[in-house]
Design a protein that fits this description.
Layout (H helix, E strand, L loop, with lengths): L1 H11 L10 E7 L18 H9 L13 H8 L4 E6 L4 E6 L4 H5 L4 E8 L24 H6 L2 H6 L8 E6 L12 H5 L3 E6 L13 H10 L1 E2 L3 E2 L6 E6 L9 H16 L3 E4 L24 H11 L3 E5 L21 E6 L23 E4 L1 E6 L5 E5 L1 H18 L5 H10 L33 E4 L7 E6 L5 E7 L5 E6 L7 E5 L7 E9 L3 E8 L1
Parallel strand pairs: 5-9, 5-10, 6-9, 10-11, 11-12, 12-13
Antiparallel strand pairs: 1-3, 1-4, 2-3, 7-8, 14-15, 16-17, 17-20, 18-19, 18-21, 21-22
Helix pairs in contact: 8-11, 9-10
Amino acid sequence: MVRTKFTILLLTILPLVGFAQGNRYMVFFSDKESSAYSTSNPEEFLSSKAIERRVKQEIAITEQDLPVNDGYLQGVKDLGIDVFFTSKWFNAALIQTEPANITSVEALSYVDSVLFVAPGERLTASSRKHKDKSNREKSVANQTQLNILGINSLHSEGYFGEGISMAFLDGGFSGVNTASAFQHIFDENRVTYVYNFVENSDEVYKSSSHGTQAFSTVAALIAEEYQGIATGAEFMLFTTEDVSGEYRIEEYNWLIATEKADSAGVDIISTSLGYNTFDDSAMDYTIEDLDGKTAIISQAAEIATLKGILVVTSAGNEGSNEWQFITTPADADNILAVGSVGADGEPSGFSSIGPTADGRIKPDVVAYGGGASVINSNGSIGSKNGTSFSAPQVAGLAALSWQANPTLTNLELRQLILELSVTYNEPNNKTGYGIPDYKTTLSINPIAKKEAIKVFPNPLSGDQLNIKMTNQERLLSIEIFDINGRSMFKNNLNEASYDVLTIDLEESLKGGVYVLELITDTQHYKARLVKF
């Protein structure tokens, strides 16, 4: 069985540790010479699913994938220093030790450098598995956010994320193991692995409800009350954010968790974290550092992408602060950074803006984060503001889209989601390419000949829709269809010409995604219309 093999893999990558006093450091090694592993035998360090993902996407297995040299790790341990986790991609190890021991580590011939990443001790040798309960079926409380992304149409076609593996990286998932809204996942053994990299334990169901609330938008299920987007997927939960402070170690925790997810064959990573300033100002980033290549977490996100994983991250909540711009890893190039819009379809004031330091559009897309419906740690339904809650919705959409289009690579899937977005032809640094929607996509140009016709406002929050003709064509008819092809509004026109025509929809449309069809005397236009 694949899962048995993959479980063994994950357990073997966590070294035994002892108790240590002092700070936490990353030790970077100079090479991977004399490794016990070889790229010709990847099954010794990658799960079959991880290998399958690489083969499917024609991604080579390279030295970067090889584990850190065991002899080098043993050399550090022989100094009486505890080694907790390793990074294959950065050829490094996380240690916890007294500052006085660092000189001895640096003196080892195969050590390239040592980096201080956090003060004090947080890592322990304790490790205890939690498993518990949650619940089942359908929803209404989060209907608005489902409608905006066109999720209902995918659900109606039978896509709930089955066969897709997702990893969530956050500050903790309190209540996920006890709230009934998550029971179905545990009943079907679809939480395949959990780990707390902040404390070196498997106790992820504590510390913070932030991860719970983000995760719930994808995974929670309460009959006739709440419907997660990809409730049929498999999940891995990682605690990487230390809610007690802000130091660079959290980026390395994220890196290490991402490598574990890669080795296990995860398809999508969803993370609602972002970094710019720290409790130690010497660790701070500047806006000029937002180039996708400077921050460790952004480098890790890009490497994960190169391994065939789709990385989805929150853009940040700095829009109304002095910083304003996105946070890392949202600046990474080939990931999906997700901003937030409110009920009116306008960008949320708190949502971080772009561009990146090297001029790229950010965020990439947006979803409903200004009052998103979530499940709290106690199982109750609540409402939260933040890109932390819009990002996992897009990750869920990606899971369903990948299930529906299994031959796509991660980069092709990312491009599909961009092309599904409302303002794909006119991206900006507040909402990126806009709100993505799967259903209206496959047959619709986002308005063809946009120089001839403009439709506004879109998204639509009221009942009046404006149509502007910029040439001499006569508009003969207007018809609006829902995602199932049913006609919701139709009007035959006889006007010879006009500048702007205002159509009163008279509450014909509820919140959701529609297809607007316009027929003139020379052309047939289709466009995606979003109604809040």
